[in-house]
Predict the 3D structure of the following.
Amino acid sequence: MAASLILDLEQIDCSDVLYDRDHIYNRLPQQHEFRQLDGVTHLDHDAGHAVAFTDVRDDLWWCKAHIPGSPVFPGVLMLEAAAQLAAFMERYSQGDFEGFVGYGGVDNCKFRRTVVPPARLWFLCRRAEARTRRIICDVQGVVDGTLVFEATVTGLVVPV
């Protein structure tokens, strides 16, 4: 049985991009092909949740190699994008800190549908726990109102 969505997208204005790619990646260290998010449309510091998207296009770098002739957006990149949203949310919630938020773990991950170009993939993120050096978030991916993946990601502050 499919899980319910952790946030109701009907209650969020997803048409208003609050933070674009440049703003996101001025706050996060990922660059080039690993800039996975195209925009953040919702960020609620107090409630601890956020919504972002990526536009899955057929000209992206992974398309020629991940199932040639029938590209499928890699699940690991879906998780990477969701973790980036969690890290972005944490940067705003805790303010500036030394280092970056890196992977600490992934639990309860389920891929429910494939994502093929063209598609807008929405990422939903809800903070489950936050400490000074660790954040745990429930994340989901949604395309056209359908849940395509879900997981719990743990991020750790990595000093640089």
